[in-house]
Amino acid sequence: MLSLTDKNGMNWYPIFASNSASVALIGRQAGPNNAGPLPIRIIELPSAKELRRFDLPGLPERQWLHIRRWDGRYLLAVQIVQLESEGRKEWQQITFDTSTDPLGEGTIDPMLRLHEESANDSTFWSEAPDRAAFGKIIRGGQKSRLDEVREWLTAKLGIDLTPQHQIRANVRIVDRATGETRYQLPRPLAITICLSRDGRRLAATHDHDSIEVWNVDPPPRWPFALSAGALSFGGILAFGRWRRRRELARVRSV
């Protein structure tokens, strides 16, 4: 058993490596203020030997939001930075290589950085190695086509069809190499989403405490469009030949 008592009131939260050979302990002071350095302890398992202890660098304009992943070497963290020159905030994902000494400032992922566009806008993401799911929260006053259908059915049937999760978002899948949108979800989802490691499935909480899973790597649509076009053309051609034969048969009968 590893003792995590701290006289300074520090709370420690564990994140296991994928091979379970180590755990990263994230230190948080009690209270809402997460500004300043973020203490990290790397513990070997099952020996409980402390391999390294360091702080993620903190600045007055920087706030560490959370640690996203620990793989035994690389630590992925998300921070909020106040951009004084632009008067807005930016969410950034930074990768730290814990095998280097000193730790350094880390590497900012160019695709996983988002700006706060306005007070009524908020964006979040869930990433896989080659793609990411970006969600844009739908604020009050914004209605999707599905919302309008729900309101119409509620008025007609007298049954409340309002989704249990009021905070929802439009979600799209983006290629991390090119920045191009690979897939757009057909309707808003709850903001609790998780993209699978292979980037092919997206899970989200659904109404009535359930989970929905989406296939966000559908096959290309052009084969189906080509097949449909070929079938339509073939049908028109066959109909034309049948009509011509019918007219010829009518002429011969006369």
3D structure, described in words:
With 254 residues, the protein is an alpha+beta fold. Among the domains are: 119-218, no CATH class; 227-254. The protein has 2 helices and 16 strands. The longest helix has 32 residues, at 222-253.
List the helices and strands and how they pair.
Blueprint: E1 10-16, E2 22-29, E3 38-44, E4 50-56, E5 62-70, E6 74-83, E7 88-97, E8 107-115, E9 123-127, E10 131-137, H1 145-157, E11 168-175, E12 181-184, E13 189-190, E14 193-195, E15 201-206, E16 210-215, H2 222-253
Antiparallel strand pairs: 1-2, 2-3, 3-4, 5-6, 6-7, 7-8, 9-10, 10-11, 11-12, 11-13, 14-15, 15-16
Question: What would the keywords be for this entry?
Answer:
single chain, four-stranded antiparallel β-sheet, five-stranded antiparallel β-sheet, 18% helix, alpha+beta, 254 residues
Entry summary:
The chain is an alpha+beta fold and 254 residues long. The chain is built from two helices and 16 strands.
Class based on secondary structure composition and strand pairing: alpha+beta
Oligomeric composition of the shown chains:
single chain
Q: Globular, elongated, flat, extended or rod-shaped: what is the shape? A: elongated
What's the overall average pLDDT, rounded?
78
Alpha plus pi helix count: 2
- First and last CA, distance: 102 Å
